[in-house]
Amino acid sequence: MITLPASKLPQVGTSIFSVMSQLAQTHGAINLSQGFPDFSCPPELADLVGTYTRNGFNQYAPMTGVAKLRENISRKTQLLYGVAPNPETEITVTSGATEALFCAIAAVVRPGDEVLVIEPAYDSYVPAILLNGGQPVFIPLSFPDYQIDWDLVKTRITPKTRLLLLNSPHNPTGATLSAEDLNNLADIIRDTNIFLIGDEVYEHMVYDGHLHQSLLRRPELAYRSFIISSFGKTYHATGWKVGYCVAPPALTQEFRKIHQYLTFSTITPVQYALTDYLENTEHYLNLPTFYEQKRNLFCSLMDSSRFRIIPSAGTYFQLAHYGHITDEPDVAFARRLTQEIGVAAIPVSVFYHNNQDHKVLRFCFAKNEDTLQQAAEKLCAL
């Protein structure tokens, strides 16, 4: 009989996303929980994947990513943010944004280092920090506007602080960083040795005429930052798990040391297809309008419900407060909503290390209009 070693992640179980999706499937509920579209990627992009697969582009891609893809990422970055990262030394294609997050954390975090985590936080951050010997230090966003209290951030910085994780547009809240936020961030870390991770996978989903405030817009922030993006989110193909990281040469060098032994390279025909499709700038430039219309539709359909909508400035998620409907904990209410009403959502408390419960659920509106209409009809009947 062999004795298993102590778990490195004793508090980690099956993710809430898997739990709620399985519950939705079991009860035949409309799944607005896990963040994936119920519509396909652009047909031209799918055709390109088929073409490259049939034409033999099926062996290992370069560890850093297909060269032309990295060149096109650089051009895209310059178009959007006014900076052209060097494709050879500053851009790495990864097997999804989650891999990129792990590589970035592993590249700079050492045992005993502290990492500032803004909560509610995406669920992969803390396990990656712990696996690399780091200590998460939690900073809650204000409720209900979900803004960063920069004075509070200052109080959490110590000589052990190595890294600050920022997610904008923010999952799960839909909040976005402003230019003033970047000013405050620059002032706070200017004379420190703190690195930054900019989780910017929803960069093309910023609404109401606002611009995405990427860390790349500020040289004094970019030189200490890993900026992480996702093709899966941009092209409605989350199952492809293709992302990339932009970082200065010294950070990229360390990032790639982890990446080459974690996944080595990313699916080859998809990289070539994305290379070609990136020439179509209209897709990602029009994406804010595309998703803003879905957000507006879902919110208008929910007008007659008993939920109170919390404004979403970005992502494809919409929060709704239900505290005036029931005192149930959000996990219990989300389960009941799935089982009895027929709509699955994510309880926001699971994004907090201490399961802070504001009686808020997260709905994904990256769905066809029919799906949103059917879901809203059920929710309005509550």
UniProtKB/TrEMBL annotation:
Pfam families recorded: Aminotran_1_2
**Which residue stretches, if any, does this entry annotate as coiled coil?**
none
The Aminotransferase class I/classII large domain sits at: 30-379
Per the record, the domain of life is Bacteria
Q: Name one GO molecular function term.
A: kynurenine-oxoglutarate transaminase activity
> What is the required cofactor set for this protein?
pyridoxal 5'-phosphate
Say if the entry is tagged with keyword Calcium.
no
Q: Which UniProt keywords apply?
A: Aminotransferase, Pyridoxal phosphate, Transferase
Q: What name does UniProt use for this protein?
A: Aminotransferase
Organism of derivation? Adhaeribacter aerolatus
The taxonomic lineage of its organism, from the top, reads: Bacteria, Pseudomonadati, Bacteroidota, Cytophagia, Cytophagales
